């Protein structure tokens, strides 16, 4: 796990995010997402330097489109956002949950 993944996982594990259960490195279809809440159909991805190349970007886009076809919603954050502005990353996740939970 990267430092960003560790930092975010510390905030998501054990039902800490508004009482929802998140899994880490969750397989869905033929893909793996960084974090996933099955009750919300929410995948959270942290994009690091490996996502900067055009090939990686296209693979991510293909994967995201396929999972969205299955009903999965995505929140994406840059690695630096998580490291240096975790408060606002968490606020964004909380806001998404409040707006989308049923």
Automatic annotation (TrEMBL):
Domain of life according to the entry: Bacteria
Keywords, ordered alphabetically: Endonuclease, Hydrolase, Nuclease
A GO molecular-function annotation: endonuclease activity
Nucleus as UniProt keyword: no
Claim: Nucleus is one of the keywords in the record: no
Annotated ranges, domain DUF559: 1-96
Name of protein: Endonuclease domain-containing protein
